[in-house]
Design goal:
It contains 5 helices and 6 strands. The chain is α/β, with parallel strands linked by helices. It has 2 domains: 159 residues, Rossmann fold (3-Layer(aba) Sandwich), CATH 3.40.50; 50 residues. Strands 3-4-2-1-5-6 form a 6-stranded mixed beta sheet, with helices on one face. β3 and β4 form a beta hairpin. Keywords: GTP-binding, Nucleotide-binding.
Length: 212
Protein backbone atom coordinates (compact mmCIF):
# COMPACT_ATOMS: atom_id res chain seq x y z
CA UNK A 1 0.00 0.00 0.00
CA UNK A 2 1.34 3.41 -0.87
CA UNK A 3 0.29 6.96 -0.02
CA UNK A 4 1.11 9.99 -2.14
CA UNK A 5 0.90 13.53 -0.80
CA UNK A 6 0.98 16.06 -3.61
CA UNK A 7 -0.41 19.26 -2.05
CA UNK A 8 2.45 21.14 -0.45
CA UNK A 9 3.72 24.26 1.30
CA UNK A 10 7.38 25.00 2.04
CA UNK A 11 6.92 26.91 5.26
CA UNK A 12 4.06 25.25 7.09
CA UNK A 13 1.73 22.31 7.01
CA UNK A 14 -0.45 22.48 3.91
CA UNK A 15 -4.10 23.28 4.56
CA UNK A 16 -5.05 20.57 2.11
CA UNK A 17 -3.62 17.12 1.44
CA UNK A 18 -4.35 14.68 -1.35
CA UNK A 19 -3.67 11.03 -0.54
CA UNK A 20 -3.75 8.42 -3.30
CA UNK A 21 -3.93 4.81 -2.12
CA UNK A 22 -2.19 2.31 -4.36
CA UNK A 23 -1.69 -1.41 -3.96
CA UNK A 24 -2.70 -4.90 -4.99
CA UNK A 25 -6.32 -5.97 -4.96
CA UNK A 26 -7.73 -7.08 -1.64
CA UNK A 27 -5.07 -5.50 0.60
CA UNK A 28 -7.50 -3.10 2.28
CA UNK A 29 -7.16 0.15 0.35
CA UNK A 30 -10.87 0.92 0.60
CA UNK A 31 -10.97 0.12 4.32
CA UNK A 32 -7.97 2.36 4.83
CA UNK A 33 -9.69 5.13 2.86
CA UNK A 34 -12.67 4.82 5.22
CA UNK A 35 -10.41 4.94 8.29
CA UNK A 36 -8.58 8.04 7.07
CA UNK A 37 -11.75 9.85 6.01
CA UNK A 38 -13.73 8.69 9.04
CA UNK A 39 -16.55 7.58 6.74
CA UNK A 40 -18.03 4.45 5.18
CA UNK A 41 -18.23 5.94 1.71
CA UNK A 42 -15.72 3.52 0.22
CA UNK A 43 -17.00 0.01 -0.40
CA UNK A 44 -14.68 -2.43 1.32
CA UNK A 45 -14.07 -6.16 1.38
CA UNK A 46 -10.90 -7.95 2.47
CA UNK A 47 -11.55 -10.74 -0.01
CA UNK A 48 -8.95 -11.40 -2.68
CA UNK A 49 -11.21 -10.07 -5.43
CA UNK A 50 -11.05 -6.38 -6.26
CA UNK A 51 -13.91 -4.24 -4.93
CA UNK A 52 -12.98 -0.87 -6.44
CA UNK A 53 -13.77 -0.84 -10.16
CA UNK A 54 -13.10 2.86 -10.80
CA UNK A 55 -11.17 5.44 -8.80
CA UNK A 56 -13.19 7.09 -6.04
CA UNK A 57 -12.44 10.41 -4.36
CA UNK A 58 -13.93 11.63 -1.10
CA UNK A 59 -13.07 14.70 0.97
CA UNK A 60 -13.16 15.17 4.72
CA UNK A 61 -11.75 17.38 7.46
CA UNK A 62 -9.21 15.97 9.89
CA UNK A 63 -7.74 18.19 12.60
CA UNK A 64 -9.06 21.30 10.82
CA UNK A 65 -7.44 20.29 7.53
CA UNK A 66 -9.06 19.23 4.28
CA UNK A 67 -8.04 15.72 3.29
CA UNK A 68 -8.80 14.36 -0.17
CA UNK A 69 -8.63 10.55 -0.19
CA UNK A 70 -8.50 8.74 -3.52
CA UNK A 71 -9.07 4.98 -3.67
CA UNK A 72 -7.77 3.26 -6.80
CA UNK A 73 -8.38 0.01 -8.60
CA UNK A 74 -6.11 -2.81 -7.47
CA UNK A 75 -2.85 -3.42 -9.26
CA UNK A 76 -2.72 -6.72 -11.18
CA UNK A 77 -6.50 -6.80 -11.17
CA UNK A 78 -6.75 -10.17 -12.90
CA UNK A 79 -7.11 -13.75 -11.70
CA UNK A 80 -3.86 -15.13 -10.28
CA UNK A 81 -3.44 -18.38 -8.40
CA UNK A 82 -2.62 -18.44 -4.69
CA UNK A 83 0.81 -19.89 -5.32
CA UNK A 84 3.23 -18.34 -2.80
CA UNK A 85 5.93 -17.79 -5.40
CA UNK A 86 3.57 -15.80 -7.57
CA UNK A 87 2.53 -13.78 -4.54
CA UNK A 88 6.14 -12.82 -3.88
CA UNK A 89 6.60 -11.87 -7.53
CA UNK A 90 3.43 -9.76 -7.37
CA UNK A 91 4.68 -7.85 -4.34
CA UNK A 92 7.93 -6.93 -6.08
CA UNK A 93 6.27 -6.17 -9.40
CA UNK A 94 3.68 -3.93 -7.72
CA UNK A 95 6.43 -1.62 -6.49
CA UNK A 96 8.03 -1.60 -9.94
CA UNK A 97 4.67 -0.88 -11.57
CA UNK A 98 4.08 2.12 -9.31
CA UNK A 99 7.50 3.51 -10.22
CA UNK A 100 6.83 2.90 -13.92
CA UNK A 101 3.50 4.72 -13.70
CA UNK A 102 4.61 7.69 -11.62
CA UNK A 103 8.32 7.88 -12.40
CA UNK A 104 11.50 7.09 -10.49
CA UNK A 105 11.07 10.18 -8.29
CA UNK A 106 7.80 8.73 -6.94
CA UNK A 107 9.84 6.85 -4.33
CA UNK A 108 10.38 10.16 -2.54
CA UNK A 109 6.62 10.67 -2.31
CA UNK A 110 5.71 7.12 -1.30
CA UNK A 111 5.06 5.59 2.10
CA UNK A 112 4.47 1.90 2.77
CA UNK A 113 1.29 1.51 4.78
CA UNK A 114 0.56 -1.82 6.49
CA UNK A 115 -3.23 -2.06 6.53
CA UNK A 116 -3.63 -4.97 8.95
CA UNK A 117 -1.81 -3.68 11.97
CA UNK A 118 -3.72 -6.00 14.27
CA UNK A 119 -2.00 -8.95 12.61
CA UNK A 120 1.48 -7.48 12.99
CA UNK A 121 1.30 -7.36 16.79
CA UNK A 122 4.59 -6.04 18.20
CA UNK A 123 6.79 -6.36 15.14
CA UNK A 124 9.30 -3.55 14.75
CA UNK A 125 8.71 -1.71 11.47
CA UNK A 126 9.61 1.87 12.35
CA UNK A 127 10.39 2.87 8.78
CA UNK A 128 6.79 2.29 7.74
CA UNK A 129 3.33 3.08 9.04
CA UNK A 130 0.96 0.56 10.56
CA UNK A 131 -2.80 0.94 10.21
CA UNK A 132 -5.44 -1.02 12.07
CA UNK A 133 -8.69 -0.69 10.13
CA UNK A 134 -10.57 -2.54 12.86
CA UNK A 135 -10.05 0.46 15.13
CA UNK A 136 -11.79 3.06 12.99
CA UNK A 137 -12.61 5.22 16.03
CA UNK A 138 -8.93 5.59 16.86
CA UNK A 139 -8.09 8.86 15.14
CA UNK A 140 -4.61 8.98 16.65
CA UNK A 141 -3.35 6.61 13.96
CA UNK A 142 -4.76 8.92 11.29
CA UNK A 143 -3.09 11.92 12.92
CA UNK A 144 0.20 10.02 13.09
CA UNK A 145 -0.10 9.17 9.38
CA UNK A 146 -0.69 12.82 8.47
CA UNK A 147 2.34 13.84 10.51
CA UNK A 148 4.50 11.42 8.55
CA UNK A 149 3.09 12.74 5.29
CA UNK A 150 3.86 16.29 6.42
CA UNK A 151 7.44 15.21 7.11
CA UNK A 152 7.61 13.70 3.63
CA UNK A 153 6.32 16.98 2.17
CA UNK A 154 9.00 18.92 4.03
CA UNK A 155 11.71 16.49 2.92
CA UNK A 156 10.68 17.11 -0.69
CA UNK A 157 10.95 20.86 -0.28
CA UNK A 158 7.21 21.37 -0.62
CA UNK A 159 7.23 20.36 -4.28
CA UNK A 160 4.37 18.50 -5.87
CA UNK A 161 4.89 15.04 -7.25
CA UNK A 162 4.91 14.97 -11.04
CA UNK A 163 4.60 12.04 -13.41
CA UNK A 164 7.30 11.52 -16.02
CA UNK A 165 4.94 12.80 -18.73
CA UNK A 166 4.04 15.90 -16.70
CA UNK A 167 7.69 16.67 -16.04
CA UNK A 168 8.47 16.31 -19.75
CA UNK A 169 5.67 18.70 -20.63
CA UNK A 170 6.90 21.28 -18.14
CA UNK A 171 10.50 20.89 -19.34
CA UNK A 172 9.36 21.40 -22.93
CA UNK A 173 7.36 24.51 -21.98
CA UNK A 174 10.41 25.88 -20.21
CA UNK A 175 12.61 25.21 -23.25
CA UNK A 176 10.04 26.87 -25.52
CA UNK A 177 9.89 29.91 -23.22
CA UNK A 178 13.68 30.18 -23.11
CA UNK A 179 13.81 29.98 -26.91
CA UNK A 180 11.14 32.70 -27.18
CA UNK A 181 13.07 34.89 -24.73
CA UNK A 182 16.26 34.47 -26.78
CA UNK A 183 14.39 35.33 -29.98
CA UNK A 184 12.91 38.51 -28.50
CA UNK A 185 16.28 39.51 -27.08
CA UNK A 186 17.86 39.04 -30.50
CA UNK A 187 15.17 41.13 -32.17
CA UNK A 188 15.63 43.90 -29.58
CA UNK A 189 19.39 43.89 -30.19
CA UNK A 190 18.87 44.17 -33.96
CA UNK A 191 16.41 47.02 -33.47
CA UNK A 192 18.88 48.74 -31.16
CA UNK A 193 21.69 48.40 -33.69
CA UNK A 194 19.41 49.80 -36.38
CA UNK A 195 18.69 52.87 -34.29
CA UNK A 196 22.39 53.44 -33.59
CA UNK A 197 23.22 53.16 -37.29
CA UNK A 198 20.49 55.63 -38.20
CA UNK A 199 21.85 58.06 -35.60
CA UNK A 200 25.37 57.67 -37.02
CA UNK A 201 24.06 58.32 -40.53
CA UNK A 202 22.28 61.50 -39.39
CA UNK A 203 25.42 62.71 -37.60
CA UNK A 204 27.48 62.01 -40.71
CA UNK A 205 25.08 63.93 -42.90
CA UNK A 206 25.11 66.79 -40.42
CA UNK A 207 28.91 67.01 -40.55
CA UNK A 208 28.98 66.99 -44.35
CA UNK A 209 26.28 69.67 -44.59
CA UNK A 210 28.10 71.77 -42.07
CA UNK A 211 31.30 71.49 -44.04
CA UNK A 212 29.76 72.56 -47.34
Amino acid sequence: MSAFDVSTDRRQKPDELRIVLLGKKGVGKSATANTISGTKLFKEDFASDSVTIVCQKESTNVAQRRINVIDTRGLFDTYISNDEIKKEIEEKEAVKLIQDLFGEESRRYTMVLFTRGDELQNKNIEEFHVFNNKETRDQTQVTALLEKIDSMVTANGGRKHKTVEKQREEDQRQRDQEEEDRRKKGEDMIKGLGKERRKDMIKGLGRREGGT
